[in-house]
Amino acid sequence: MDLPVAEWKSYLLQKWSLLPKSIQVTVSTAETLSDVFLQSSSLLQPEDEIFLKRLSKGYFVGKDSGAPLFYREEGNKKFQEKDYTVAAVLYSKGVSHSRPNTEDMSLCYANRSAALFHLGQYETCLKDIIRAQTHGYPERLQPKIMLRKAECLVALGRLQEARRTISDLERNFPASPTLADFPSQSVQRNLHHLKMKVQEKENLPETFPAALAKTLEGVDLGEENKQLSNASSSVGLCMDPLKGRCLVATREILPGEPLVKEDAFVSVLNPGELPPLHHSLDSKWDTRVTNGDLYCHRCLKHTLATVPCDGCSYAKYCSQECLRQAWELYHRIECPLGGLLLTLGVFCHIALRLTLLVGFEDVSKIRKLCDEVSNKDIYLPESNSRVKTLNSGLGEIEKNGKIVETPIPGCDVNGKYESNYQAVFNLLPHTENHSPEHKFLCALCVSALCRQLEAASFQAVATGADSSRLKAAAAPELCPDVTVWGVAMLRHMLQLQCNAQAITTIQHTGSKEGIVTGSRQVRLATGIFPVISLLNHSCSPNTSVSFISTIATIQASQRIGKGQEIVHCYGPHKSRMGVAERQQKLRSQYFFDCTCPACHTEVHEMAARPRWEAFCCNSCRAPMQGDDVLSCGRRGCAESVRRDHLASRLQDLRQQVGMAQKLLSDGELGDWQKSATHLQNSLRVVEARHGPSSVEMGHELFKLAQIFFNGFAVPEALSTIRKAEEVLSLHCGPWDDEIQELQKMKSCLLDLTPSL
Questions:
Q1: Where is the MYND-type domain positioned along the sequence (predicted)?
Q2: Separation CA 742–CA 481 (nearest Å)
C-alpha cells in the first residue's frame, strides 16, 4: 500500500540484482540524493516502462459507459432488501462512472436520494435531488422526486418551503402532458398525506433538539505558542545532543490537556482493498465497499453522497467545493495518472502531491531548499557536545570549546517553526540508513512518474491544451529543473518511512440489534504533519492522538512534569509487543534502538520476553521466572507456582472472554447479567495487558456500560459510564462517537433516576 505493488517491487529488485557490480557500487556510494536519482533514472529502460504501464492498466480508473446501469441495478437490489447504506454506495459508484449532464448521472443521483431519505439523511437527500435535476432528471419522473423533496422539507421543519413545493407539484402535475401516464391517484394521495403532515407540524410548539443546536467546538489550545505553530504554549521546541529536535513541557501538563492540533500538510486516502490487478471475466465491475467509496478524497470527511471527478471514476469528494479545491491544487495533474499512482503506492503519491502543492513553477524554491540541505553542517551534534535550547528557535552548540549559535532546522528567520513546506523539507530522509536497493526502487518510481508527466506535457502541447503547470516536468535534457524536482520527490519518499503519520478512524462493528456495538481502529489515510513529526518515540508514551478528518489532535494521556519530554508512540507499544519485537521493528523502520524507560526496564527484568507471555507474582507483581516451576524474580520475595497451574487459569479466563463475546454478539437481553460478568473478567485481562488508562480499557468499559444500560442496571451503568468517559477522554476528543454515546446514555439514565 505504502510502497509499490508487489509485481513492480519484485521487478525492480530483480533488475537491481542483475545490474553489474560496478553500477551497484556507484549507486550505493552516491554521496547525494541528486547522484542517486541521476544514476538510477538513467537505468530506467523502455521495456521497464512498458511493464509498468501494463500493471497500471490493471487498475481501471476511467469512466465506463456500461457501469452506471450495472451499479444502479445492483443498488436497486440492495434497496429492495432495505440495505440502504450499501445501496447508496452502489449508486455512488454509478455516479462516478457517469458523464455530466446525462440521464445516467441524474438517475443514479435520484436513486441515491431515495436511499438517503430512508437513512434519515434529509439534508443530503435534498442535495442529491438538486443534483439529479441539474443533470437532466427526466420530466416524466419529476413527481416522484418532488414528493421526496417535500417529505424531506417537512421532516426538517422547513414548512414554508414544503408548502411551496406541494403547490408547485399540484399546479404543474395536471398541466404537463409528459406526466399523463404517471399514476395520478398515487400522487394525489401522497400530496394529501404531506398536507396533513405540514398541518401537524404547524400545530406543534417550535422546538429544536439540543443535540442539533450545539455545534462541536474544536479543541482550544489556549494561549498562542510564539515558537511553534499549532501547539499549546505549554509545549517547547528543543535540541537534544542525541535525539535532535524534540518537544518538552514548559510547565506541568495535566492528563487530557490538548498539546498540538494540526491539519495535515498533505494527506492521501489509502485505497483500501482494491480489485486484483487482473479482473476476472465474471466480475467486470467491483461491488465491494472501500474507503474510497465512503470518505472524501480531499478532507477525509465520511459521506455516503460523494461527488465524483468529471475525468475519472476513482476520485470522489464530499462536496463540489472539495472537488474544486482538489482540482486546482493537484488533481488536474493526478487525474490521468490514477492507475499509475495506485501501482506506485501511497508514498510516491504523497511525494508527487507535496511538489504539486509547492507548484511546478516554483522550482527555484525547491532548488534553494536542496542547496540549504546540501551545504549546511549536520545539525545533530556529537554525543559529547553540549546543547542549549533558546526560545527564539536557535540552539547553542559547544564545539571545540566554543559556543556556536545555530538555527533549529525547519525554523524561519525569526526562529519560529511553522507547519509549512520548509518544515516538511527539513524532516530527515535518513538517506544513509536506507538500503541501496530501497533507494534504487524509490528513485526508479520517481523517474517513471517524471516521464509520464513529461509525456502528458508533450501531449498537452500537441493538442493545444494549457500545460503551464507541466512545463517543469519536461525531460532533463530539455529542462534541467526536472532533476531538482525529481530529487525533491525522492527525498520525500525516503522521508515518509520515518515521518508518515497514519490517519485513523474508529469503525463500529456488530449488529445494531445487539446489546453492544464493538469498534476497531482502521487506517484511513497517510499524511504529513510537520509539528507532530517532532515528537520522539516512547514505547510507553505520555500522549495519545485522535483525528477529525485531516486534523490531528495530540493530548496528554498522563501528567507531564515541567521540562519532561513529550513523547508519542510510533506503533510498537509496550502493551502490544514484547521488547525484542519492538526493538526489531523500530530498528528496521526507524533506524534506532529504543532506550525509553519501558524498554530499559523490560530488558533488565524480563530478558526480552513479551509482557503477556510472562506471569506476574501474585504478591509483588514482579515478573515470574523459570521453566516448570516459576519463582518471583524480585529479591526477598519467595513466591513460587507451577507454570501449568497458571496456564490453566489463563485458559479459563480466555474461555470466559470468548463466552462474553458470544453473548454480546447474540444480543439477547435476558443474558445481560452473564455478559456483564464475563466482560468484567475480561476487563482484568485487558487491564493487565494494556494498563488501566489505555484506550483498549476505554473501549471495553464502553461495552460494559452498554450492557448495564440495556439491562437497566442504573447505578452500575452510571458508574461504568463515568470510568469509560475518564479513560476515553485521555485519548479522544469530545467529538468521539463513543464519548457522545456515553453522554447520551448518562443523560437518559439521569432523567429516569428521579422517577425510580
A1: 296-335
A2: 56
Greater model confidence, 640 or 492: 492
Dihedral sign for Cα atoms in the order 165, 166, 171, 173: positive
- Give how far the C-alpha of residue 543 lies from the chain's centroid of Cα atoms, to the nearest Å: 18
- Reported as a single tens digit per residue, the pLDDT across 101-121 is 999 999 999 999 999 999 999
Phi, psi of 417 (to 5 degrees): -95, 115
557 domain residue, yes or no: yes
CA distance 306 to 144: 22
Residue range 391-400: mean pLDDT, rounded: 47
Could you tell me if residue 117 is inside a domain? yes
Q: Do 196 and 90 belong to one domain?
A: yes
pLDDT given for residue 351 in this prediction: 95
The 8-class DSSP code of residue 51 comes to H
Q: CB neighbours (10 Å) of residue 562?
A: 12
In a shared domain, residues 94 and 192: yes
Count of structural domains, the chain: 3
Q: What is the pTM of this model?
A: 0.79
pLDDT tens-digit profile of 440-463? 999 999 999 998 887 776 454 344
Cell numbers representing residue 321 in the block: 467545493
**Are the beta carbons of 560 and 252 closer than 8 angstroms?**
yes
585 lies in the same domain as 541: yes
Strands 551-556 and 258-263, sheet pairing: antiparallel
Q: Are residues 239 and 196 in the same domain?
A: no
* Torsion 17-21-26-28 (CA) sign: positive
Question: Which of 94-98, 137-141, 457-461, 713-717 has the highest average model confidence (pLDDT)?
Answer: 94-98
Q: How far is CA 414 from CA 367, 392, 720, in A?
A: 22, 7, 50
**pLDDT tier for residue 560 given thresholds of 50, 70 and 90:** very high
Q: ∠352-503-348 over CA atoms, to 5°?
A: 20
- The verdict on 141 and 259 lying in the same domain is no
Domain that includes residue 193, residue range: 66-174+186-200
Is residue 270 included in any domain, yes or no? no
Task: Give the end of a domain, one of 608, 630, 649.
Answer: 608
Other CB atoms within 10 Å distance of the CB of residue 233: 15
Is there a contact between 467 and 332 (Cβ–Cβ < 8 Å)? no
727 is a domain residue: yes
Read off the CATH number of the domain in which 706 is found. 1.25.40.10
Residues in contact with 185: Cβ distance below 8 Å, sequence separation at least 6, in sequence order: none
Contact present, 219 and 553 (Cβ < 8 Å): yes
- Of the chain, the end-to-end C-alpha distance in Å amounts to 55
Are 678 and 739 contained in the same domain? yes
Is residue 112 within 8 Å of residue 135, measured between CB atoms? Answer: no
